[in-house]
Specification:
Number of domains: 1
Order of helices and strands: HEHEHHEHHHEE
CATH superfamily: Metal-dependent hydrolases
CATH architecture: Alpha-Beta Barrel
Number of helices: 7
Structural class: alpha/beta
Shape: flat
Strand content: 5-15%
Largest sheet: 3 strands, parallel
CATH class: Alpha Beta
Amino acid sequence: MLDAYEQVIKENPNLRPGTLAVEQAFLADEAVRQRAIQLGVSVTVQHPLTYALGAQLLAKRGKERTARAMPIGAWVTDGAQVAAGSNSPPAAPDPLQAIWGMVTRGTRQVGVQGLKYAVDRLTAFQLYTLGSARFYWEDDRRGTLQPGRLADLVAYRGDPLTRPIDDLLKLRPMLTMVGAAPYSIPT
């Protein structure tokens, strides 16, 4: 795919970086990651696939390849433009489960796989929010709560940034706002 993308970029030298994307990049090694980054290719990652399919991956691809599946932390460390999502189905479209998985590298049936590719909790939230907004070139109006931006948000009874990580699997939204009017601070 990167060969094809490279040809597209050569034929369209003014193509905006991030126009081309790699979905999932499931087994991208360092050379592939570096090449994608050099080409300005964005990456979407969906840990819920690893969560839901961990047992099948382990059975069909073995321990080493399963541990390397969805190397989110490596993409981030290498400097890629990364956006996170759920890729539902086969996994639930639960952002907190996805964030939990990016932090723990946990799976539904076969435990932790590839812990060295984990990210910290704040990074996981940023990939799911601001990273996704950047992916769609909407980071000037979405992805963070700031005056003048759309107030897309979810509120929980507990703070998902400070609760024990396993609590993320139990938290349920108490309020959801999508496409709300631009948020402004009362004066």
